[in-house]
Specification:
By secondary structure, this protein is an alpha+beta fold. It is built from twelve helices and 18 strands. The strands form four sheets. Strands 1, 2, 3, 4, 5, 6, 14, 15 and 16 form a nine-stranded mixed sheet that branches. Strands 7, 9, 11, 12 and 13 form a five-stranded antiparallel sheet that branches. A hairpin with an 8-residue loop joins strand 17 and strand 18. The two termini are 36 Å apart.
């Protein structure tokens, strides 16, 4: 992947070495024997954040911790009346995850601010946000730190149990790591969106598109929102497999399978119409205490989610799913209950910043791809809070949320240099 990238899309050799060393430090410190585990609001996440803080302080940068225990690294500008330019990401991981998810964005942002600190004092203040709890793997809710940043943290989340240690609540974990949960629960904003000109986040791509198309960096058009139903059920009637003919059966498995195939057909039709949509049945199982080869299953449990950049598409797919449920009930006598849903709105990246990023890439001769993000990111919270936002993807093999993440370091440097230029020049594009 030797790609010649002309100035200004280069990273100083010593900063590149710092980034390489940081990735190795994080890997060594948080390898769990299989992959990388940094639990949110726990010692590993805090230790990683403290390491970023130490490097920043050594470089003379300002560091503060807010009431949600997010870290903010700041290079003050000469004109504090102007909105600040910001970048950032997260350092928590899923259990047995990879070394680059989240961390790449934090390290890229650190390099950008360290680079800026070496030149003339910038007119505009620069911030790096190192955010808590982006992953939902620990308490079932994503974006904990960024939600708190803008006063969007639901106080009920403080009572959420840790999914691996139910005796530990999120509130207790937050307090243990230095958060002021009273301030967070009061939904007091920790950052005024109007105080930020724009926000940019770097992240590894968590799918295969950029590897397949052989481009080192991607520019994100938007972050898909999702509708999730984690506790859905298909309810029929248990029966003897040899004694009940087909026309009298109420087979929960076949009812659920019919539902899945109908939605798959709907998905295909929407894609053919040019809609943006992905759909997944993540769990599909009968109760192991009851299922048997000779039993017509009376109940099946499943999880269903669908994602799109368009809120209208999300709603339309939900309406179509409910129509199919009614048909299956009539035809098969199987009742499908989706159960309580969780909705996350989509977020559009700022088209002016996207065009600006494309212009930077074109001028530098850097191959790039514009694509939607199927996974969620903290940039969605910034964008929906009214902060013009952009995202840079870095090519990464073998997907994400697993130990086999394989981001090429040269690709990372290209992405980090691109993030830096969007951070330093994007405010003039959006008029901040």
């Amino acid at each position: 992947m030797d790609l010649a990238v002309p100035a200004p899309l280069v990273v100083a050799p010593d900063l590149a070495a710092l980034a390489r060393d940081l990735f190795e430090e994080l890997r060594a410190a948080h390898h769990d024997g299989v992959g990388i585990t940094r639990e949110t609001y726990a010692a590993g996440e805090t230790a990683a954040m403290r390491r970023i803080e130490a490097i920043a302080r050594d470089a003379g940068l300002d560091c503060t911790w807010d009431a949600a225990a997010n870290l903010r690294v700041t290079l003050p500008g000469s004109d504090p009346s102007r909105p600040a330019a910001a970048c950032g990401s997260h350092l928590d991981s899923v259990p047995q995850g990879g070394n680059f998810d989240g961390a790449a964005g934090v390290i890229a942002g650190l390099l950008a601010i360290l680079h800026a600190a070496r030149g003339p004092r910038p007119v505009r203040t620069l911030h790096l946000f190192v955010l808590r709890g982006e992953e939902s793997a620990w308490y079932g809710r994503p974006y904990l730190g960024s939600s708190a940043l803008f006063g969007l943290f639901d106080p009920a989340w403080l009572d959420l149990p840790n999914l691996r240690d139910p005796a530990l609540t999120l509130g207790a974990a937050m307090r243990r790591e230095g958060a002021d949960t009273a301030v967070v629960a009061a939904r007091r904003p920790l950052c005024d969106p109007a105080a930020l000109s724009h926000f940019v986040e770097l992240h590894i791509e968590q799918g295969p598109v950029m590897v397949a198309r052989r481009v080192p960096v991607g520019l994100v058009s938007g972050i898909r929102g999702n509708h999730r139903h984690p506790n859905a059920r298909a309810l029929g009637e248990a029966a003897h497999s040899g004694a009940v003919p087909r026309w009298l059966r109420r087979d929960a498995v076949l009812g659920a399978a019919d539902f899945a195939m109908r939605l798959d057909g709907t998905w295909r039709t929407l894609l053919e119409r040019g809609e943006d949509l992905v759909m997944t049945f993540g769990i599909f199982t009968t109760d192991p205490r009851e299922h048997a080869m000779t039993r017509v299953p009376g109940e099946l449990r499943f999880a269903l989610e669908w994602r799109s950049e368009s809120e209208a598409t999300l709603d339309a797919f939900g309406d179509l799913a409910r129509a199919e449920i009614a048909e299956i009930a009539r035809e098969r006598g199987v009742r499908i209950e989706l159960g309580p849903g969780v909705r996350t709105p989509p977020a559009a990246m700022d088209p002016r910043l996207l065009a600006h990023a494309r212009a930077i890439c074109t001028a530098a001769g850097l191959p790039h791809e514009v694509l939607a993000s199927g996974a969620g990111h903290d940039a969605a919270i910034f964008a929906n809070a009214g902060v013009p936002s952009a995202m840079v993807f870095v090519r990464n093999e073998h997907g994400s949320h697993n130990p086999r993440e394989a981001m090429d370091f040269d690709d990372f440097l290209h992405g980090a240099a691109l993030l830096r230029e969007i951070l330093l020049t994007g405010a003039e594009v959006v008029g901040g």
